[in-house]
Amino acid sequence: MSTLLDIKSSVLRQVQVCPSFRRRTEEEPGSTSADPQEPPTGAWKPGDGVEFFSQMRRILKKGEGRQGLPCPEVLLRSGSPAPAEPVDPNRGLRALTQEEVQMLYEEALYTVLHRAGTMGPEQVNDQEALLSYLQQVFSTSPEEHAEAIERVKKAKAPTYALKVSVMRAKNLLAKDPNGFSDPYCMLGILPASGTPREPGSHKEQRFSFRKGSKRGGPLPAKCIQVTEVKSSTLNPVWKEHFLFEIEDVSTDQLHLDIWDHDDDVSLVEACRKLNEVIGLKGMSRYFKQIVKSARANGTAGPTEDHTDDFLGCLNIPIREVPVAGEDRWFKLEPRSSASRVQGDCQLVLKLITTQRDTAMSQRGRSGFLSYLLLLSRLLQFEHRTDEPNSSSWRGELSGPAATVLCLHGAQSNLSALQLAVLHWQVSSRHHQTRTLDYGYLLGLLEDMQAHWEESASLPQEQEESLADSFSAFSEFGLRLLRQLRDYFPATNSTAVYRLELLLKCLGKLQLFQPAFEICPFETELNMDIAAALKRGNREWYDRLLNSKSPREQPGPQRLVGLVELADAVYEDLQSCYGIYASLFHSIVKVDFFTLTFRQLERLVAEEAWVLTEELSPKMTLEVASGLFELYLTLADIQCFWSSIPGRDSRSLALAGIHAPFLPAVKLWLQVLRDQTKWRLQGAVDVDTLEPMDASSKHSSSAATASLCFSHIQELWARLAWPDPSQAQGLGTQLSQDLCEAALFYTQLLRKKVDAQPGAAGEAVSEPLCVVLNNVELLRKAAGQALRGLAWPEGAAGLEGVLPRPLLSCMQALDEDLQQEAHTVTAHLTSKTVGDIRKYVQHISLSPDSIQNDEAVAPLMKYLDEKLALLNASLVKENLSRALEALWELLLQAILQALGANRDVSADFYGRFHFTLEALVSVFHAEGQGLPLESLRDGSYKRLEEELRLHKCSTRECIEQYYLDKLKQKSLEQNRFGRLSVRCHYEAAEQRLAVEVLHAADLLPLDANGLSDPFVIVELGPPHLFPLVRSQRTQVKSRTLHPVYDELFYFSVPAEACRRRGACVLFTVMDHDWLSTNDFAGEAALGLGSIGGVARPPVGGSVRAGQPITLHLRRPRAQVRSALRMLEGRANKEAQEFVKRLKELEKCMEADP
């Protein structure tokens, strides 16, 4: 391994001589790269760098959650119960006096004792159960309860009335010729007869107007009402409302007839004559004849021709009307079995009381107020008996409570809108004393909104009461929004859902604002919400500042707290954007995120500016570390704003905040440089140079180095320094530090391998493989980290193009690490040189009697073992390097074996040709190894040419020499000059005519800058033209552009000119009088292409062709290989040919 220590990489040399790579001015000039220089101990606490990189990982981990915009799914982490909201018993309804409670108690008892109508399936029909429930609600003793019931029973019974709304009918019979009818309704109350009716005697009820009892006394006109006539329809819509007094709830019934109107007589006038009808029998007849009477103004007789047609009737007992009222379709019934009717009629029925003998009624307390007080009492009782954690209670009332409220609401004639208003008022007040589910409150508002759109406005007193409830609830909600982060934390999905419902409730309040004559809000509610949020933001920030970084503390202590405060602000802004912003914007049209970001960003910026000015004169390593972490968070806040489409960070208070942090960042990066080296030193010290596990082929120190570089890259990405010129300086320095650390690591590895026992033996191969894999992993990690260190280059920079200093640094480091890898590879494969030579020699010494595959088998077995070991120990890139090194060793070993054996049989060379092809197959490995282009390049071509020429005869080698000259191309066409010639073959004389015309741009070979050129013209190969001698032109003195115009004849047969390799060779020489002539260049022209040689001339003569320009050149290695092959031949022909060429070579100079 001592050879490895002598290798000095180019980057390490730059570290020693280039100021950009040199950090330590105290470094000794004579120090070498063989012994890695330890980092100084003054930059940070000496150690192995673990603590420093742990802190860096903490900083980086903090930034992992700050990439891109936050998602609600990431922020919502808890489904636990929401924090308890503040309650105040004083915010409920006014407490009642004892007398008022007693009056309310008797009002409830009166309602139960005088209930009328049919109870629903979900209602409690047991009177005793209802009374017992009221006793519990009002907490009365049995004696007090009994006395109250007695007082209520002695009171006068209420007066009942039936509210009837005739809504519409459908599918009526068509009575008119046009296929329609003109329907109208007649309805009234049928009093009970003297004879009790049997239950279920539906037929008698249906025809009661005809078969009623003889009940005396005049029947008032108001007992019968008539709707309007709806012309030409079978599905009339009336929506008319009537009120009928009820004498006997248990026996009276509602009767309704539907008729088809046949003329335009006023029905109202006809109804006025009802006062003249005496007895039930007369009234029954009147229901039949009323239209005739109307037409004749009461004088029409029973013989009138024009009679309205009957369409159907209804008989509804009052006692069957549900307590809560009903809205339903009734099927029309016939008067008799002979009647034919069809269709349905929709009625809305409600049984109410018009006079109540209770203390509250006597004192002028309306049913609205009585219901409000009763509902509040019941709600307090029901909620009190529920489970302790009742913030999710949705106002579910027990059966007795719902029944009592239903009875009182119906008897008090409260509309659906009034009931909705009452439930909202009571529940919203109750919520402020004991928390309810906001979904329940929102449902009450939605119910109230639906009825508000259908009904007329409330009386002024009730509207004012509702407005007060809105104001109280909005004030309560705004107080909660001021403490948004306490009561609705963004990480609690339950709390966030409650916030959403609260905002929807407040949004509903805004919808009611235009409907009030007396507006409950002085300003727009969304403006109040924005003001509350701003105030809450400031209060939250002030609390956070006082707890983490109070201003009375010294600057270094405040710095730690300010970092925590900035982190808390960033997390809060994430919550605002990911959770709160969409809720506020979509529900109440408030841009909560912009409002909060602007406010908190300004506050943090002010604090940071003040603290950096205070700490700048006191810059220490600890202060620099804290300021560096603070800047990263402030930069994250800026980046967060910029990442939102349409937002510009230049308008922020944090714009330009990077300037005062620059000294701290520079100092911290110096610490990073030194700590990186300490960390690498510690990692190599504990490294055993063994693979970490079965799935990896590198050791632990390489993983540590890769992780360090990755952290540096991530840190630079987070830093994102905004000033391009400053970023270039920081990035250049950091990239140089990273390169220095990478090379420092390779030095440590060399030292580690050298220190291992038995380094000179075979056992070192496994550590060498690990080292090689470590270098490759380091090369990739460092390259990736350097690519990540790109900095902005301003307007002139191109997107995606690395800055030039960084690119140069990357290329230099990659070259050095590649060279390092090749050096280690060479040392690894050098162990096999002796074995490879031994097995190649075995092939060369194998007798011709054995087969080729048998002779090659030992080498193949050896290679198979070595390649299997390398494949198991090396990563793909290093395996390719090892294969390339082994391949070159094999080619050189075979070339040496060929050079050591001369004048051997052709089988000898055939065996090595077989060996070469077998090795190509092994190293290519069907595409899994080296590519064929790489295998068959370089030394392979030379070896293949050697083998091919060795198999040729002497004359074939000579022919190959001339063929190579014909194939040779001039690398630079004008370097050695040009020669113009003209050639043709005269078949009649059997001679070849060669005319040398002129030359140009020859090389100046004399001291005067000129030459004395002449041209030697000869034919080759010599064995084809044994009797032909070379000829030469005259010498042209002192010129580089000689003109010859000399013609030469060579008597040769045409068949010889057509032979393989036949050519005319032009050699340009510089004539020297006192020394050997100098070689200026040569050119060859194949005879097969000359006119008259390839095809006999027509007419027996050939005219001279066009001049040919030949580019002069000098012999290349390809030509000389054939010459070397001939040099090894001992036969006379080969030796004479070589001797003649060597005489010519003495005149040649080396290529300039």
From TrEMBL:
Residues 141-300, 975-1102 form the C2 domain. It comes from Equus asinus. CDD domains: C2A_Munc13-like, C2B_Munc13-like. GO terms for molecular function: SNARE binding. GO terms for biological process: exocytosis; positive regulation of neurotransmitter secretion; regulation of dense core granule exocytosis. GO terms for cellular component: late endosome membrane; plasma membrane; presynapse; recycling endosome membrane; secretory vesicle; trans-Golgi network membrane. Keywords: Cytoplasm, Endosome, Exocytosis. Residues 20-48, 70-90 are annotated as: Disordered. The keyword 4Fe-4S does not apply. Residues 853-961 form the MHD2 domain. It comes from the Eukaryota. This is BAI1 associated protein 3.
